[in-house]
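Every protein is a chain of amino acids, and every chain bends into a shape of its own. The protein below has been through that process, and both of its lines are reproduced in full.
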Amino acid sequence: MADIEIYSAMLCPFAQRSRLALLEKEVPFKLIEIDLRNKPANFAEISPYGKVPVLKHGDHRVWESAIINEYLEEAFPDPPLLPKDPIQRAQARIWINFADTRLFATTGKLLYSQDSTSHPEIVKELADHLQFIEQEGLQKLSAQGPYWLGADMSLVDLTYYPWFEQVAVLEQFRGFQFPPGLDRLQQWWERMANRESVGTIANPPAFYLERYAQYAQAAKLK
């Protein structure tokens, strides 16, 4: 029986990151799905922040997806999901940080904003992030691909994939459109979508549209 448990939620892109890392490393684990609208009474004892994911490894707990994934990289080093070269590792961490502090942060601001007059400005900000990813990230770090840092997949790829899986929500409820010229990003997405690990955790656009409708529709009608 696996001595690793991961508390997850199908809707949570951060939980998806850590499930992907476990799958890519072929680490056996027990998946515990949490209904974030109806959390177990003891969930605060499991997750100090009240969020997913949380990883339990034996008697120890780790939370926050980026930290969980770094822990998995250290505890289960094969196959590696970070480069050995210190500069390349630093680059990987820079782009993981960009995902958390820019891409996902702006997405949350757009999706949950109740002020519809602010949406066009936030949509532009999000499009600018994607162009920055294309030009400063993928084209410079890995022009030939197929992955973010080159021929080998890394934690950077696993960090970004869930955002793109859920982008239909922004297109449907916030009028978001991808800016032109994201050729390298498109190549990356197509390769990631065909990974076996991704196929294990992937959900269709309709899954996200149905579940986000109650949040996004309120602002859309304002």
